[in-house]
Write a structure and sequence with these properties.
Length: 170
Amino acid sequence: MISLSFLLAGCENKDENKAMDEKISRLEKEAEKHLVYKIQEQQSYFSKHKTFFKPPDERGTNSGYFPPIFGTQICYGYYTEINADVLSKTTIDAVYSYAVQDYCNGKWGFELKSYVGAVFAVPITGDKQLKTLSIVCKSVESFAPPSRPKYINGIVKCPPKTTKVYSILN
């Protein structure tokens, strides 16, 4: 005979799993939104200054980030890498931003998807002007920081084991 407490514990566990899945989904959507914002800011900055900028890394703490760029978001750390342009010593041709699982207030019982975004400054055919192409990709596997997106023959592509969640031509 199965005890009533055993049956109720199974239901409770199912509710806990659903709540955890919802929390993970919310955290991932929030990280995606923040990374898209960072990419849009890089595009805007480049359109005005013809270069990219490297903001400070935003490591997670138990009470959010310091400096608190995105308020008290925890569980993700954000960082940016830049690439020097081969044509100019003063312009950077690409900037890469990452959102990866970080300090989760001591809670490491779950894994979050990572994100990588890039903005590429590329020449317009037959012109000395530059345009920007950007993309944000979400990892297929949890907790694995993705490699960089690529710009090849006029096309921006997500790295292997990721899916595109955002792209724009500016």
